[in-house]
């Protein structure tokens, strides 16, 4: 098969592992920088040009689209779909997953557990918003933040109100979320491929840090999910329409709470923590579905 990995950086661990796994199985693997693609849109013959040449004969595509280029990256994935190429992550699911607010609404509608979350249109009544999120301490998140950036823990009512007023003054879109104290700065990442949890790890924030992101110096270890946690992860990926998903879960007194569903989850942390060949599972998923 001819499989394209859409990635801006061929040196990233995830990109290299996907190429390596595909080549090991005898596939023709190609890295394409989606930011450098030209899309040809015409009736019955959509095309895609990369480095001056038309891309043809592709069986499957694996999108690794960074959040900063979601708009154009999604357009490239959509173009492949128009060319009848199987995409491991559908363009519409990619768009949905990048909108934090829309994601939470979809997950809520699917009946999944979530931390209490409040979003407003720069409301001046900040104290009421904090109260609706369960009262201080609360977590305040920029809607566009990634990898733990733009996430603030407000310890008390005064600091929560000040932070919210400052964000409102800057016209920065934020959500206010309940702080789950019993999670103790840890979360679970379940890696879902084609309706199966292929690996799971527990991520622990470093000392004094409530964010568990590995990019922020957190650590990770393999974990066996409970049936309830595994079901929640699978239901979340299904609700978002994602064939590949990193589902972040908080362990709370009222059961698993979905924090986020990531459509381009990194492979390094999960493969290191679990010792599993997750890249190989993704290649198998493409093999099963690509014509």
- The number of helices is 9
Radius of gyration of CA atoms, rounded to a whole number: 20 Å
Assembly of the depicted chains: single chain
What fraction of residues sit in β-strands?
25-35%
Topology order in helix (H) and strand (E) letters: EHEEEEEHEHHEHEEHEEEEHEEHH
Sheet with the most strands, sense and barrel status: 5 strands, antiparallel
Backbone shape: globular
For the biggest β-sheet, the strand order reads 14-13-12-15-16
> Which regions have little confidence, pLDDT < 50, spanning 5+ residues?
none
Mean pLDDT: 92
How many β-strand stretches? Answer: 16
Task: Please provide a brief summary of the model.
The chain is of the alpha+beta class. The protein is 33% helix and 28% strand.
Blueprint of the fold:
Layout: E1 2-6, H1 13-24, E2 28-32, E3 37-40, E4 47-50, E5 53-54, E6 60-63, H2 70-82, E7 86-87, H3 91-98, H4 100-109, E8 117-119, H5 126-132, E9 138-142, E10 151-154, H6 157-169, E11 174-178, E12 186-193, E13 196-204, E14 219-222, H7 227-240, E15 244-252, E16 255-262, H8 268-274, H9 278-289
Parallel strand pairs: 1-2, 1-6, 6-7
Antiparallel strand pairs: 3-4, 4-5, 8-11, 9-10, 9-11, 12-13, 12-15, 13-14, 15-16
Helix pairs in contact: 1-9, 2-3
What does this structure look like?
The chain is of the alpha+beta class and 291 residues long. The chain contains 9 helices and 16 strands. Strands 14-13-12-15-16 form a 5-stranded antiparallel sheet, sandwiched between helices. Strand 3 and strand 4 form a beta hairpin. The longest helix is centred in the last third of the chain and has 14 residues, at 227-240. The model has no long low-confidence stretch (mean pLDDT 92).
């Amino acid at each position: 098969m001819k499989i394209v990995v859409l990635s801006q950086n061929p040196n990233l661990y995830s990109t290299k592992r996907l190429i390596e796994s595909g080549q090991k199985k005898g596939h023709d693997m190609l890295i394409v920088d989606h930011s450098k693609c030209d899309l040809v849109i015409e009736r019955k013959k959509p095309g895609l040009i990369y480095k001056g040449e038309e891309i043809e004969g592709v069986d499957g595509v694996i999108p690794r689209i960074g959040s900063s280029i979601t708009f154009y990256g999604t357009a490239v994935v959509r173009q492949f779909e128009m060319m009848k190429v199987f995409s491991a992550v559908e363009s519409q699911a990619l768009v949905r997953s990048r909108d934090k607010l829309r994601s939470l609404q979809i997950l809520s509608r699917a009946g999944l557990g979530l931390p209490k979350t409040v979003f407003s249109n720069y409301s001046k009544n900040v104290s009421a918003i904090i109260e609706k999120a369960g009262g201080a301490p609360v977590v305040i998140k920029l809607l566009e933040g990634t990898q733990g950036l733009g996430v603030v823990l407000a310890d008390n009512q005064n600091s929560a109100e000040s932070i919210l007023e400052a964000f409102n003054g800057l016209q920065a879109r934020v959500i206010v979320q309940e702080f789950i104290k019993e999670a103790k700065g840890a979360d679970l990442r379940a890696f879902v491929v084609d309706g199966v949890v292929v690996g799971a790890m527990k991520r622990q924030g470093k000392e004094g840090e409530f964010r568990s992101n590995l990019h922020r110096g957190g650590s990770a270890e393999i974990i066996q999910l409970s049936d309830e946690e595994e079901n929640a992860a699978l239901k979340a990926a299904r609700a978002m329409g994602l064939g590949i998903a990193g589902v972040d879960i908080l362990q709370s007194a009222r059961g698993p709470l979905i924090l986020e569903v990531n459509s381009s989850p990194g492979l390094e942390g999960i493969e290191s923590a679990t010792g599993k060949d997750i890249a190989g599972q993704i290649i198998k998923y493409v093999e099963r579905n690509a014509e």
